[in-house]
Amino acid sequence: MKPWAFGVLALAFVVAGCQSAPAPTGAASGTPGHGPLRTAEYSAAKYGASPAGESSRRSNAAGAAQFDFYLLNLSWSPEFCSSHQAPECGLHRAFIVHGLWPQRNDGTYPQRCGTRPGPTNPAAWADVMPDAGLVKHEWRTHGTCTPYDADTYFGMIRKAFKEVKVPAVYTDGTKEVMMKPADILADFAKVNPGFPAGSMALSCGNNRLTAFELCLSKDLKPIACSAVKTCRANVVKITPAK
Questions:
Q1: pTM over 0.90
Q2: pLDDT of residue 85
Q3: What CATH number should be reported for the domain whose range is 42-238?
Q4: Which of 192, 186, 147 is nearest to 165 (CA)?
């Protein structure tokens, strides 16, 4: 290879490395870049690794990032526990908090915005996120992009979680059922009349319900959000809670 060719190749690598990768689209799974990642994020929390592809989505900020709203993701624990062993699985809960994620209106989102100290006692948040490893991971990945300290951030998560009413049909079910995503959202809208149209979404994978999502303003008020996609499956299977 001619000497000048090495310079051309080096320049190409530099240019490629400086381009920001767009947030991946969740397709039928729901929220761009978030919904399908629960398995990877749990592994990251447990083993201290980063989910595949996460490095390309990290924010370059050294502190709180610019964002427009939060996305509260409530994981459908029975589905997760049908194929995983985790601290939450022995509790037999319905929805648990996966995260409160800063989002931008253009569909992108910041991640890993610094190395500020984590929560004083990760186990103290077990009522909403029953896995201390996941608590630490969510702080590193998402909480550091907010302007709050860790304990304040998880206090916000607890407050947001308590504002969501879950229809009894999902917490009391003992048999697998199949439902249209629109009907599931209608059930949530019925028991949460203060949630505006367009504020709720579902995540699904392999035509199974994996999460309920709610868009919140920075002061934790439910808001409509066009950048968050919802599950596009015709019907989804719901793993029973009991």
A1: no
A2: 80
A3: 3.90.730.10
A4: 192
Which parts of the chain have pLDDT scores under 70? 1-63, 92
CA gap 139, 121 in Å, rounded:
12
SS3 helix, strand, coil % of the chain, rounded to 5?
A: 40, 15, 45
Q: State residue 88's pLDDT score.
A: 78
Identify the CA nearest to 107 among candidates 74, 71, 157, 153: 71
Q: Which residues contact 187 (CB under 8 A, 6 or more apart)?
A: 167, 169, 170
What pLDDT shows up at residue 52? Answer: 33
Helix (H, G, I), strand (E, B) or coil at 6: helix
Q: Which residue has the tokens 């509260």?
A: 72
Residue among 189, 241, 181 nearest 205 (CA): 181
* Sequence spans of domains, the chain: 42-238
Q: Residue 103 in contact with residue 227, Cβ under 8 Å?
A: yes
- Contact by Cβ (8 Å): 109, 228: no
DSSP notation for 152-210: HHHHHHHHHHHTPPPPHHHHS--S-EEE-HHHHHHHHHHH-TTSPTTSEEEEEETTEEE
Q: Which of 52, 131, 59, 122 is nearest to 91 (CA)?
A: 131
